[in-house]
Amino acid sequence: MKTRNKKRNSFQRPWCNAAMLCMIMLVSACANNEHIVGSSDTVSYELQYGFYSSKDRRLDNHQESNLVLFFPAIPGALFGDPGIDLVAEVVPSDPTSFVLDLPKDADSSSGLFEYRSLRIQPKNVTMLRLGTFHFLPKYESTLGGGGFRNIRNNNPVILVYFSSPATVSGEVVLQSGRYQHDVRIKNAGWHWIEIEVDAEDRYTLRRYDGDTSNIEFQVFLHGSIET
User: Fold this and answer.
1) 118 — pLDDT class (breaks 50, 70, 90)
2) What is the DSSP letter of 2?
3) Buried b (16+ CB within 10 A) or exposed e, 58-68
């Protein structure tokens, strides 16, 4: 398996606009958290995080105060922008790791899968991809982007909820490359999907069965920090 090159793919976002920031911050302020952390209604992931420039360079030993991680729902899609549902919000208390608590049942935030060049079986499966963003007060009007990666090989990883067992197949062609799908889900719930690099601008999406200790959340910073 080849490692990821430095060209940013469609699953990583260095930033997003003020309108999206306002929407997610408003949802966060108004949200009624129905899921008790660590309860039987949640699934928890202990994850690492690190800071990166928008050019994907790791900023070792870099720290930021008042960091907030936002995880909105992207219903019915593996690509695209988030909807109005905020699935989780995390304020890390540790400089290198955090716990992500998610509802075991996310059907209310998911949607029917719709992408013309992809096939999903059965067709009535609903799903959502977990969006990955962050906020720092010094970047007032910008919601910073992020993404998960496999630290073993630098491959991007996404976290997706499926309402039932399913398979996703087919190919999506974007400016960032060609994405072949070979996703086989054996049970309802949250699943890590790895984007494997096959060749230049060619990727394959498959279910990730490895240890979550190898998954890191990338916090993409921007501005003078890149120099």
Assistant:
1) very high
2) B
3) eeeeeebeebb
